[in-house]
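So, can you check what follows?
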Amino acid sequence: MAKVSLQKCESYELSELKKSLLMNIADMGGLDGYLIPGETVLLKVNLLMKKSPEEATTTHPNFVKALAEILSDFGVKVIVGDSPGGPFNIKSLNGIYKGCGYDIIPDEEKKIFLNENINQVTVKRDDLFLLKSLEVIEILQKVDKVISVSKLKTHGMTVFTGAVKNMFGTIPGIYKAEYHFKMPKIEDFTNMLVDVCINANPVLSFMDAVVGMEGAGPSSGDPIDVGAVIVSDSPYHLDVVATQLVGINPKEVPTIERCIERGIVDNDFRDVEIIGLNLTDFPERSIRRPKVGGVGFVKWNLPEFIKKPLINLLNPKPVFDYDICVKCGECERACPPGAIVIDKEGPKVNYDICIRCFCCQELCPYKAVEIYRNPILSRIIKL
């Protein structure tokens, strides 16, 4: 039986965050059951890209600071880090830390990550579902324990991104595109995400749901007040409760679907014990979520010469707002199959090779990318 603690928190004031986090930790039976004083712990935060805390794209720095202080008081050594999309180097990470407001995190907790571990190592695994080897950030093998510190957000490819997908940040930035390219099918991609989470093996998972993101997540959506802090000994079950909290059917989230198929989570969710507050203690919400998928996710028995143009016509596709786009090239660099080129007008997409991973939207610093679906045809075939 997995335990998931729900507590209210409606402010990023450090005192309020600490109060809520300490109640969550008490719900979980205290830190003693998960950590030993003297251990080194990686707080694997969500630092997707350089965004201010107010944009709700990344784990709020005050949330991380409050948790780090609690853990330090317990007696463990804390390292804060992530491998966002793009180059995995000191210059890039320093810029992201600063842009995301992580200046408030003590330098000693960041510098260890920045200066000693900008490397990756290969891990061989025979016990995972899909992956037999992984390239991971080196720090993962140098710490005693990992704690996930995710952000509640919607996601254009996987509906929802939470504790499980947060562990994708243990894959070095440049290798993320390779995984997208090799696994364009949502079933394979989300099985890979579960494998990566199993490999990282977080002993606790914390979710910043004080302010989440709805709409065009994980970086171009809108902040939404949720007023919660969620903690669990299972990242898989944390995501179940988090989606229920904001009105998303967990079974419509591909990572949770894979967990059910693999027996990690019960089909009826009876293996989840919610402690602290109940879901009914929070306002009922129906978070605005992106509509994902398309005919590429539907197995139609059609000739290839008919199916391919039909998929290109009906599948969601990234489109660019040239009035906003500054032609910075981030979308072109982030595109796993190399489907984007930039000309004088702006980015152009070759939809024949586009895999609909929407990394272009996810990593666009100017919110110049939208996901377009043909509204009439989509309604006709009920996509």
